[in-house]
Each structure stands twice: as C-alpha cells, then as structure tokens.
Amino acid sequence: MSDGRGSGAAAHAAPWGFFFFLAYIGAAIYFISHSDMGFWGWVLGLLQALVWPVYLTYYAFEALGVA
I need a surface site. Which of 11, 31, 35, 55 has the fewest CB within 10 A? Predict the structure, then answer.
C-alpha cells in the first residue's frame, strides 16, 4: 500500500525543476533584452531561452579553441 508521501523520484526532481525554471526565466530575460524588442524579437528570445545550454557549450568550446 502507498504511504501517501508520493513517489520518491518526483520528490527528488522538484528542486531541479525549479532551478531549470529560474534558468529559463533568466535566459529569456537576457535574450529578449538583446533583441530588437519587436514581436518576433520576443518570440525568438523565448525560443533561444529554451536552447541556452547549446549557446553555453558552443562559446565554451570556442574559448577553449576547439570550435
């Protein structure tokens, strides 16, 4: 029987979900603030915020001289 405390995996994933949510919000603010502030600038900023780890990896490799 269930003890009513929920699944262990979901309980351990909750703090990481909040961290990634905050990271998305921060990335969205960054990319939107660097856009032309038009409608499509906002849309592109939100889409870029979804894939910000790709930008981070690319620029890290570029700084190391790999890319």
Answer: 11
* E strand or H helix at 15: helix 8-33
Tell me the two tokens of residue 41: 């600038």
Contact yes or no for 35/44 (Cβ under 8 A) = yes
Question: What's the start-to-end Cα distance of the chain, in Å?
Answer: 54
pTM over 0.70: no
Q: 37 in the Ramachandran plot: left (φ > 0), alpha (ψ -120 to 50) or beta?
A: left
Integer Cα distance of 17 and 15 in angstroms: 5
In this structure, what are the phi and psi dihedrals at residue 51, rounded to the nearest 5 degrees?
A: -115, 25
Q: Locate the domains of the chain by residue range.
A: 27-67
